[in-house]
Each structure stands twice: as structure tokens, then as C-alpha cells.
Design a protein that fits this description.
The complex is a heterodimer of chains A (about 600) and B (about 170). By secondary structure, chain A is of the alpha/beta class. Chain A is about 35% helix and about 15% strand. In chain A, the strands form 4 sheets. In chain A, strands 3-2-4-5-7-6 form a 6-stranded parallel beta sheet, sandwiched between helices. A 6-stranded parallel beta sheet of chain A has the order 11-10-9-12-13-14, with helices on both faces. Chain A has a 6-stranded parallel beta sheet with strand order 16-15-17-18-20-19, with helices on both faces. In chain B, the strands form 2 sheets. In chain B, strands 5, 6, 7, 8 and 9 form a 5-stranded antiparallel beta sheet that branches. A 4-stranded antiparallel beta sheet of chain B has the order 2-3-1-4. Classes of the chains: A alpha/beta (about 600), B alpha+beta (about 170). Chains A and B meet through strand 6 of A and helix 1 and helix 2 of B. Bound molecules: flavin-adenine dinucleotide (FAD), thiamine diphosphate and magnesium ion (MG). The site of flavin-adenine dinucleotide has 37 residues of chain A, from helix 9, helix 12 and helix 16.
Chain lengths: ~600, ~170
């Protein structure tokens, strides 16, 4: 098949491909690139050397470059940019790309490639990058003609950030980086793409149907997800406005935390596998559900045939393929979460139907009864630090400082405790790997956020196992004097694995002990950072305060209870009203069938 | 759930004729575990920029809706049209069928070919190549009849399909 050619540009000004790329990045507003050099991208590094507009952050592993770009993107709403070499540079980036794909994070990843005439020859450091990354990206390009170069870069940005955001790879053969290429300006935003045109504005008729259902609801719930964060801070503001106007309870997914203020009395907390009792029972018992920018993930729905059995469901999502994928809905609204919320608010105001205030009051009463179970309560007594307590104190102490605080996490129990006990009142302050669940995400993500927000307090809430997956980035922190804090909840176990083994596999702790751990204090010191340790509850607050006060990077090794489990928990394959609330009910997990056990 | 019934769907997809587009479509089906019963592709506009893919698949209503939504979100896809759902349509496939044999079998093969309106496009004293267009069932039936008569090789294009009447799709 022949490639599409770009119409001849007006300008005859030809510059080396590498320079054309940087010019296009500049026009796209790029300020920072996270990257790692190698033979095939040397021309880009040479061009970078000769300019000052774009800053390059040298990471220590290409996977971390992508996670750093994700952290940068999620905390700013901008596109994160990555630059890696061909072959191993590109393959190292793949985990990060899939992570960004699953969590809808806009990323541009420039990969080097062997020169066009060598493609397919098993040349040195050749990999079929477009082939490998096709299912790992929203879209990818291999630039084979110099005249396509600028157009492809501009188009890639449009694809990455519009519609449902995602990662885009541009594979760049070395000859294309060297050969003179023409520059073309980015097309004006109004120019429609030839084939890619995501629907942003919701259909008015669907909005009317939704308002009709919502006005008539006796037991409504709003289930808001990462899509609201993707839609920008204004969407979060509108979510708050609508929720209050309609006096409805609101729950957030793991990816949606911060979209609705955690401190707001209308907030039910997170829902799903490790969600609160009130959120999950409200989902189970509601009569009308408004899903806005969430994707009915299996971690949220639990057993599908028992998921919110009696409700009418409204689903607003910018990606039609998210709708009716797992759960059949009654009203499907395709559009941007912000536009949908604005339209709902307008239609709500224009509609004179009164809500059933009495039914709503009754619903709130039930919710308050569920809240009274106080499902996140824990007992901190004695010298052993409970991990929940460590997060709670971290939250309280950071709040006291009044500093803008951005939290990232690794993956495991500590991630769930962070989600449960750290309250987020604003979007873009919570960075976590939800869809892929990538251990090793948190440190580079915090690094990316810190680059974008030099004055913010950026903390990676980590597990002792996960942190070792990208620990080399301590070097990057040192080089760029990034004061990221790594707050390790050190339970000496792959706690989440241990929890499943305890509950579902007869307590056979196969390979889940974190043996031969490094001394994290010395490790910090060897990376020119500060190392702190809290071994008992009395030391916790002081260590947190010292960590925050220190102007440079810190690793705080918090030795926590080794056998603590994360509750509430909906065991896999169970329904929302089948939660395990605490250690007393752990026996319930033993009733999990093999059908449940096959689920992850 | 009520809609566990499987149905077949013939889907026309207009795509930008660029490198890798077919791999994207096929990768989507294999990666997400959808069936492909048949798939055809060729450029269809005068400049060669647009290709039409006809894919025949099957699944529950919910799965077919997913397939269409997933196809539609691929960047180089212009339009996705479910011909099965949208109304009457024509479906055709081209087959080249080689039958090797002598004597009575040859005569019988020729007679049946005539009845099926298959054309002889190559002949030797020991073989025929028949060319046949029709829907998949017709070709299946013909091949079944040829099997005892010396059927040696079958080559089929897979289905192409178009709506009846004035309804049409364009990129
Ligand atoms: C150990 C572990 C445990 C977990 N436990 C839980 C749990 O208990 N609870 C939980 O909720 N999650 C949990 N998760 C996370 C879970 O796996 C999913 O990542 C998460 O639930 C998905 O969040 P979401 O539905 O908000 O969708 P996202 O992945 O954030 O997707 C966003 C959705 O919004 C749409 N969208 C994007 N942009 C827009 C826009 N501008 N306008 C409108 N729509 C848009 C997208 O098309 C997509 O459908 C866990 C993860 C791990 C690793
Ligand atoms: C790259 C990767 N490998 C494996 C897993 C599976 N996994 C999920 S949580 C977990 C243990 C994490 O341990 P730790 O970082 O100590 O966190 P804890 O659960 O103890 O808080 C593992 C191995 C994963 N999510 N990511
Ligand atoms: Mg651990």
C-alpha cells in the first residue's frame, strides 16, 4: 500500500530533520522532554544541544522516561514527551506506553530507528517498533519521507491529546533525522482530520433523557472516573456544581480521585474492590446511576451479573467503545465530560420537574447508616506502625503545611491505602497506575510532576518491593536536584500478593517475601539524597516532618506492620454487597470459587 | 443476559490507504479475541487513498457493537458500516477452483459447473480451473460437489458486500 503524501509546503526553507522535529515540538508548546540517548537519535541530541527552548531530562531507564512524562502530563494536563533510541530504547519504553494507554494519558514518544534503507535487515539495534507498539499505543507512525515529518509531529499531538487521550509513537529512521526537510506549520485547530474526529459535544436528546431519569431518581448515585480529570479542571468544577445542585452522592474510581473533593460531604469515597462500604452499597442499591468518564472496570463492577442490578444506567464517555463494553446501559452519551456536565446543568435548570425530596432524604439517611460502619477505621496501638496510620499522618501533616502536594504511588497495598486515607480535593494531584498496575510507576511519575511543579511537594507513596523496580531514578533526582520524597511503607512483603495468598491460597506465601532488601537509608545516601527511617509509632511524625522540611530528595523508610491486609475488599468474582470488611470476615474469602479465583 | 444470541455481521470499513492499516485492523481482532470469518481489502477511490475492507464476523449483539466501536476509533478509519444491520445488501465472493481428473468425472464436473454458472478459465486434458462468483454458500456447495470429482485446489477472495438501492457510504 502506498503512503499518503503531504502536499508540497509553501516554504522552501529546508533544515535537517532533527531540527524540524524540535521546531514542531516548540510550536506544540513543548518545554520538557524525558529521554535517553543512543546511536539512532544522536542527530536529535545534537539539535537539542544547540538550542535552549526545550529542556531535556536525562532519565536512567527508558521505562522511567515514559512514566515521568505520564506524571508530567497528569499533573499539568499537557502532553508528556519522550525521546528514546531504537531497539532496546524503544522496547524498554513499551511498559510505559501500555501504562499510558490503559490510563488514557497523552504522551508523544519519539523513537529512533535504523535508516530507511536498512529497515528489515536485522540491522544493529533494529526493532520493529511500529509493529511492537501498535497495540501499545493509541496510534503510531513510521516517518519514511522527509516531507511528512512536520505534519506527522503535529498530527501526533492532535491524536495524543484529543478525544480519549493516549500515547503516540513516532518512529524516526536516522536518515530522516539528518536529511533536509521542509517545515509545515500546525494546521489551525479548526481543520478536521481526514479520518479521526472524536465527538466532543453531547447529543442534546440524550442529555434530555438523562435529566429526565436523574430528576425522577429516588436513589441516585454519581460514579465519576478518570475521564473527568482528562477533561480538565473545569470539568471537575462542573461535577461539583452538578452534584450539589442535584443533591446526589458522588463516588470516584481510583483514576478519578480528586475529580470530586474528598472533603465534601457529598463524597462517598472510592468505590470498587477496595472501595468504601457506602460507595459500593450506594452503587448496588441505587435506582439511577450516572457514570461520567469511568469505564466499568472489573475492579469496580465486581461480579457483572450482580452489579447494581436494579438501576437505570447513564454513561457519558468520549470513547464510544467504552460504552456497553462491560455493562449494558440505558442512556449512552458520547462526549467530553466537561461539555456533558455543562449540558446536564443547563438542561437540569431548564427542566421544571421537581425531585422527590422525600425519597432523596431517605436515601441520604441510608447512606449515612452505611457511613456509620466506619469501614476505614483501624486501631493504631503499640509501637508497630500501621500502614493506614502512616498514610493518614502523612496526609494530615502535609495538609498542615498548606503546600501544594502531589502524590504518586507504586502498586500494591500501599497504593490502596494511599487512595483510602489521603484525601484529594483537587484534580491532577494524584498519580497512580490504575489500568496496568505497573510497579515502578511512582518514583518516575513523581519526578515528572516535580519538573512541572518545582515548588510543589511531590511524594511517592511506595512499597519496598515496587520501589526497587525503578530505583535507579534516584540518580535523576540527584542530577536535577528534584526534591521528590519517597515514602516507603515497608512491610517486607509484596503485601498485595501476600494478602491474596493469605485469603485465597491457604496462606502459602510463595515467593512474596521481600528478602535481602537494601538498607534504604544508605541507598538514599549513596544517591546523594537524605535517608530517614521510622521504626516505631513515636518516630513517625518526626520523620514525616523532617522529610517534608528537607529541601532535597528523601527516602523515608517507614517500617510498618508486616501482616496488615487492605480492607474493605470485594473478593474477585463477588458482588458489591459481598464485601469483606475486616480480619473478622476473612473467612468469607475462602468461599471464593475457582471461577472467582481465575480473575485477577 | 438476554442477548447471548450470536449473529453474523458483514462490516464495511473505509480506511486511509496507509502503511500498517491492515495490521491495525487484524491486530484489533486477534488482540481482543474477535472472530474473523473473512476479510478482504483493496483501494477503491480514484486516487488510491481510500481502501475498503469488508470483514465478516460473528458475536453477540454487544460484541458486534464493540467491534464496530473499536474499528471506528482507529485513527485511519473513516467509516464503519454494518451492512447486515442496515438493510438489504449484496454479498459476493470470487473463487478459482481446480479440478484434476479424467473420464466421466470430467464430464460431470463440466455439467455441474454449467449448472452453477461457473466459467472454465483454464483447461488441459486432465484439468479445469473454474471461476465462480456468488455468495459463500453457493461456492461451498459447488466445492462440495467437486470433491469426489477430483477437486485439487481452491482459492477464494473472501466476501465483498454492498448495500442494495441508493444507500451508499463514502469516506
Ligand atoms: C492493585 C489495584 C487495585 C485497584 N483497585 C481499585 C478499586 O478498588 N477501585 C477502583 O476504582 N479502581 C481500582 N483499581 C484501578 C482499576 O484497575 C482501573 O484503573 C480504574 O478503576 C479505572 O478508572 P476509570 O473507570 O475512572 O477509568 P479510566 O481508566 O480513567 O478511563 C477513563 C474513561 O473516561 C473516558 N474519557 C477519557 N477522556 C474523557 C473526556 N474528556 N470526557 C469523557 N470521558 C473521557 C475514557 O474513554 C475512559 O472510558 C485498582 C488498580 C490496582 C493496580
Ligand atoms: C511490574 C509488576 N510486576 C508484578 C506485579 C504484581 N504485583 C502487584 S502488587 C505486588 C506487590 C507489591 O509489593 P510492594 O511494592 O511491597 O507493595 P505492598 O503491597 O507491600 O504495599 C506485585 C508483585 C505488578 N503489579 N507489576
Ligand atoms: Mg511491601
Amino acid at each position: 500500500m502506498s503512503a499518503i503524501t503531504t502536499p508540497a509546503p509553501a516554504t522552501t526553507d529546508l533544515r535537517p530533520g532533527a531540527e524540524v522535529i524540535l521546531r514542531a515540538l516548540k510550536e506544540q508548546g513543548v518545554e520538557v522532554i524525558f529521554g535517553y540517548p543512543g546511536g539512532s537519535v544522536l542527530p536529535i541530541y545534537d539539535a537539542l544541544f544547540q538550542q535552549n527552548a526545550i529542556r531535556h531530562i536525562l532519565v536512567r531507564h527508558e521505562q522511567a522516561a515514559v512514566h515521568a512524562a505520564e506524571g508530567y502530563a497528569r499533573s499539568t494536563g499537557k502532553v508528556g514527551v519522550v525521546l528514546v533510541t531504537s531497539g532496546p530504547g524503544a522496547t524498554n519504553a513499551v511498559t510505559g506506553l501500555v501504562d499510558a494507554l490503559m490510563d488514557s494519558i497523552p504522551i508523544i514518544c519519539l523513537t529512533g530507528q535504523v535508516p530507511t534503507h536498512l529497515i528489515g535487515n536485522d540491522a544493529f539495534q533494529e526493532a520493529d517498533t511500529t509493529g511492537i507498539t501498535r497495540p501499545a499505543t493509541k496510534h503510531n507512525y513510521l516517518v519514511k519521507k522527509s516531507e511528512d515529518l512536520a505534519r506527522v509531529v503535529h498530527e501526533a499531538f492532535h491524536v495524543a491529546k484529543s478525544g480519549r487521550p493516549g500515547p503516540v509513537v513516532i518512529d524516526l529512521p536516522k536518515d530522516i533525522l539528518i536529511k533536509p526537510a521542509p517545515y509545515t506549520d500546525a494546521p489551525p485547530p479548526s481543520t478536521p482530520h481526514r479520518s479521526y474526529r472524536p465527538q466532543v459535544e453531547p447529543d442534546a436528546a440524550r442529555i434530555q433523557e438523562a435529566v429526565k431519569l436523574l430528576k425522577g431518581a429516588k436513589r441516585p448515585v454519581i460514579y465519576a472516573g478518570g475521564g473527568v480529570i482528562n477533561a480538565g479542571p473545569e470539568a471537575s468544577r462542573l461535577l461539583g456544581e452538578f452534584t450539589h445542585m442535584a443533591n446526589m452522592p458522588c463516588t470516584n474510581t481510583l483514576m478519578g480521585l480528586g475529580a470530586f473533593p474528598a472533603s465534601d460531604p457529598h463524597f462517598l469515597g472510592m468505590l470498587g474492590m477496595h472501595g468504601t462500604v457506602e460507595a459500593n452499597l450506594a452503587m448496588h442499591g441505587c435506582d439511577v446511576m450516572l457514570n461520567i468518564g469511568a469505564r466499568f472496570d472489573d475492579r469496580v463492577t465486581g461480579r457483572l451479573d450482580a452489579f447494581s442490578p436494579g438501576s437505570k444506567k447513564i454513561h457519558a464517555d468520549i470513547d464510544p467503545s467504552s460504552i456497553n463494553k462491560n455493562v449494558k446501559v440505558d442512556v449512552a452519551i458520547v462526549g467530553d465530560a466537561g461539555r456533558v456536565l455543562a449540558a446536564l446543568i443547563e438542561a437540569w435548570k431548564a427542566d421544571s420537574t421537581q425531585q422527590d425530596k422525600k425519597a432523596l432524604a431517605g436515601w441520604w439517611q441510608r447512606i449515612n447508616e452505611w457511613r456509620a460502619t466506619n469501614c476505614l477505621a483501624y486501631k493504631q496501638q503499640g509501637p508497630i506502625i500501621k500502614p493506614q496510620h502512616a498514610v493518614k499522618r502523612l496526609f494530615e501533616i502535609t495538609r498542615e503545611t498548606g503546600r501544594d502536594t502531589i502524590i504518586s504511588t507504586e502498586v500494591g497495598q500501599h497504593q490502596m491505602w494511599a487512595a483510602q486515607y489521603f484525601g484529594f480535593d483537587k484534580p491532577n494531584h494524584w498519580l497512580t497506575s490504575g489500568g496496568l498496575g505497573t510497579m515502578g510507576y511512582g518514583l518516575p511519575a513523581a519526578m515528572g510532576a516535580q519538573i512541572a511543579h518545582p515548588d510543589a511537594l511531590c511524594i511517592d507513596i511506595a512499597g519496598e518491593a515496587s520501589i526497587l523496580m525503578n530505583i535507579q531514578e534516584m540518580g535523576t533526582l540527584a542530577q536535577y536536584r528534584l526534591p521528590v520524597k519517597v515514602f516507603i511503607l515497608n512491610n517486607e512483603y509484596m503485601g498485595m500478593v501476600r494478602q491474596w495468598q493469605e485469603l485465597l491460597h491457604g496462606g502459602r506465601y510463595s515467593e512474596s517475601y521481600s528478602a535481602a532488601l537494601p538498607d534504604f537509608v544508605k541507598l538514599a545516601e549513596s544517591f546523594h539524597a537524605k535517608g530517614l527511617r521510622a521504626e516505631n509509632a513515636d518516630q513517625l511524625d518526626d520523620v514525616i516532618r523532617e522529610m517534608i522540611a528537607h529541601p532535597g530528595p528523601v527516602i523515608a523508610d517507614i517500617m510498618v506492620a508486616k501482616d496488615e491486609n487492605c480492607f474493605p475488599m470485594i473478593p474477585s468474582g463477588a458482588a458489591h454487597n459481598d464485601m469483606i470488611l475486616g480480619p473478622d470476615q476473612e473467612g468469607n474469602a475462602r468461599s471464593v470459587t475457582d471461577e472467582g479465583k481465575v480473575l485477577v | 443476559m438476554s442477548d447471548m444470541n450470536q449473529r453474523s455481521a458483514t462490516i464495511a470499513v473505509l480506511v486511509e490507504n496507509e502503511a500498517g492499516v491492515l495490521a491495525r485492523v487484524i491486530g484489533l481482532f486477534s488482540g481482543r479475541g474477535y472472530n474473523i470469518d473473512s476479510l478482504t481489502v483493496a483501494p477503491v477511490d480514484e486516487t488510491g487513498r481510500i481502501s475498503r475492507i469488508t470483514v465478516v464476523t460473528s458475536g453477540t449483539e454487544m460484541v458486534i457493537e464493540q467491534i464496530k466501536a473499536q474499528l471506528d476509533r482507529l485513527v485511519p478509519v473513516h467509516q464503519v458500516s454494518d451492512l447486515t444491520l442496515e438493510g438489504p445488501h449484496l454479498m459476493r465472493e470470487l473463487a478459482l477452483i481446480k479440478v484434476v481428473g479424467q473420464g466421466d468425472h470430467r464430464v460431470e464436473a463440466l455439467r455441474l459447473a454449467d449448472a452453477f454458472r461457473a466459467r472454465v478459465v483454464d483447461a488441459t486434458t486432465e484439468s479445469f480451473v473454474f471461476e465462480m462468483t456468488g455468495n459463500a454458500e453457493k461456492i461451498d456447495a459447488f466445492c462440495a460437489l467437486m470433491r469426489p470429482l477430483g477437486l485439487a485446489e481452491i482459492c477464494r477472495t473472501g466476501a465483498v458486500a454492498i448495500a442494495r438501492g441508493t444507500r451508499h457510504i463514502a469516506a
